[in-house]
Amino acid sequence: MNIQDYKYKIELHAHTKPVSGCSSIRPERMVEIIKELGCDAVVITNHCRTGSDKNFAEHYLNDYRRTKEAGEKCGVNVILGMELYASGDDRLIYGIDEEFVKNTVEMPEESYREIYKKLKNDKNFFAIAHPFRGSWRDLEDDCIDAIEVFNLHPGHNSKVGLAARYAKTHDIKRVICGSDLHDEPHQGMALLRTKTLPKDSFELAEILKSGDYLFDISGNIVIPYNFQGEL
């Protein structure tokens, strides 16, 4: 394996203000931060939940569009994602478009299992975010495509060792990483390294499904346990 082949750097988990009220980074500044890091792409995974007012979808998409417009001006690829709260857990969803956001927001509040059954398709990719920030418990393994084993938000103990061990012992097919970026200077804590640069959320989902990627943990390269590239 030639690590240099994995030349593209992607932030998979980032939040912008005002949609994610817990973030202090506005869309235009998010792109500047990513550019300064030498990253090629950022996925905007703002907080969302079903049962919201339909106007929330437009509010949600406005942050994404602003970030994307700023990215186009400086050569940063901005990708649409989502962090969906349901049944007490946060799920990162990739392989989506604006219509998916609108449909999800307007769904009634239900159990996560029911939501997954209705939303899951062959184009998207569901990962449970920071699953063990709270207490230990078994996850709904048949309703996830991956576990975010490295969530490096410095303000939370995401128990990354427990998450990584759970993924391995439960034979979860894929694992991912993310900085869970809300505030400066916490950028670049955990990036995905890929051979190709996805142009949109659907291409990103295909890369995640393939398992052919590395983790860049603040400049330290980590090979996921279920790596599918050439060693």
Report on this model:
By secondary structure, the protein is an alpha/beta fold. 29% of the residues lie in helices and 24% in strands. The chain is built from six helices and twelve strands. It has helices spanning 27-37, 55-74, 98-105, 112-119, 160-169, 201-210; strands spanning 8-14, 41-44, 47-49, 77-80, 82-86, 89-94, 125-128, 146-151, 174-178, 191-194, 214-217, 220-222. Helix 1 packs parallel to helix 2 and helix 2 runs antiparallel to helix 3 (98-105). The chain is globular, with a radius of gyration of 16 Å. The termini are close together.
Q: What fraction, in percent, of the residue positions are helical?
A: 25-40%
The run of helices and strands is EHEEHEEEHHEEHEEHEE
What is the SS-derived class?
A: alpha/beta
As residue ranges, the low-confidence spans are none
- What integer value in Å does the Rg equal? 16 Å
Topology:
Elements lengths: L7 E7 L12 H11 L3 E4 L2 E3 L5 H20 L2 E4 L1 E5 L2 E6 L3 H8 L6 H8 L5 E4 L17 E6 L8 H10 L4 E5 L12 E4 L6 H10 L3 E4 L2 E3 L9
Parallel strand pairs: 1-2, 2-4, 3-5, 7-8, 8-9
Antiparallel strand pairs: 1-10, 5-6, 6-7, 10-11, 11-12
